[in-house]
Amino acid sequence: MRYSLAASMLLMAGLLSGCCWDCIGNDGNEYLSLAFSTDSLSGKGFRRAELRSVYVVRYSDQALANPLDTLRQPTTLSLYWPQGMLSLLPVSTTEAAASANWAFPQSYRVAVPAASKTYDINALEVDVSESECGCTQATLQRFELNGKPTEPGLSKVVILEK
User: Does this entry carry the keyword Signal (predicted)?
Assistant: First the structure.
């Protein structure tokens, strides 16, 4: 009895290994996370008071000419401490997830008025592929940060400095 249960579990695991479980994680949605340097002693980091002024403008075009809306703190935009993280700026979504009432952003401007700094994020290059199970996987490959080509790296977190 014990061996037949183990054998049946092994057979079940083998059969289920062909199933796709990775659709749950990404499924065509990709995000960019930003972290503000908090190393204020070096002169490149931001102070907490400066980061309280942060807001994000979403644009419908790559030229940052047609604003969609503005995300402000503390209601629609949150910075997480101690890293000063600004997470989940969407850069890709599946057609099914896109709504006619919600235009998908093509670029962003992150403003820190208290530090007199702005960061333009555009030319988003997202690789979209489909697995053998029909799962859509989106991966941010590169983008431009203030006109400079940038790759998000494995952690997908880009650190902004003064």
Answer: yes
The phi, psi pair for 8, rounded to 5°, reads -70, -35
Cα separation, 124 vs 127, whole angstroms = 10
Task: Say how far apart CA 72 and CA 54 lie, in whole Å.
Answer: 7
User: In terms of DSSP H, where are the helices of 17-76?
Assistant: 48-51
Alpha carbon separation from 22 to 35, 130, 132, 133 (Å, rounded): 27, 11, 11, 10
Rg, Å, the chain Cα set: 21
> Does residue 99 contact residue 37 with C-beta atoms inside 8 Å?
no
CA–CA distance, 87 with 144 (Å, rounded to integer): 18
Q: Out of 59-63, 108-112, 125-129, which region has the weakest mean confidence (pLDDT)? A: 125-129
For residues 68 and 131, give the distance between their C-alpha atoms in angstroms, rounded to a whole number: 32
Q: How far apart are CA 38 and CA 50, in angstroms?
A: 10
Mean pLDDT of 121-145: 81
3-state secondary structure of 10: helix
Q: Is the pLDDT reported for residue 34 higher than 90?
A: no
Burial label for 10, CB within 10 Å (0-12, 13-18, 19+), is: exposed
Question: Are 144 and 122 in contact, with CB atoms under 8 Å apart?
Answer: yes
